[in-house]
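Example record used in the benchmark description.
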Amino acid sequence: MNVTYSNTEITATLISLDKEMISPLTLVISLESKARVRMKIEDPNDPERYKVPYPDPEYKEPGNSANTRYKVLVREFPFSVHIYRTEDEKVIFDTSSHELVFQNQLLSLGTTLPSTLLYGIGEDSARS
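Model output (structure tokens):
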């Protein structure tokens, strides 16, 4: 995996040896504002692959790594994304206990959340 950190986003190329998985994948984590981060996982070989039609909001003060209330860390092996609140170093988003699955008819990315008060994570959720 190749991870690149910039002032406003993190990009990575994810490669799987599993023949059922789509590979490579492109991960883009955008620091959209001081309190908002957006994560996209896309198939670079099929730009026409269906994506949920969701408008990209505009921000008056876009985020950057110097002014956000969070830090983002992408671990290469095993692949995981961790988002920490800078104020107290508390993990607020963690994919390390769940495997990423990206197949033709299935996308699965599990998370561990520290609270039931978080929202905007996805379309389906399960209590653990």
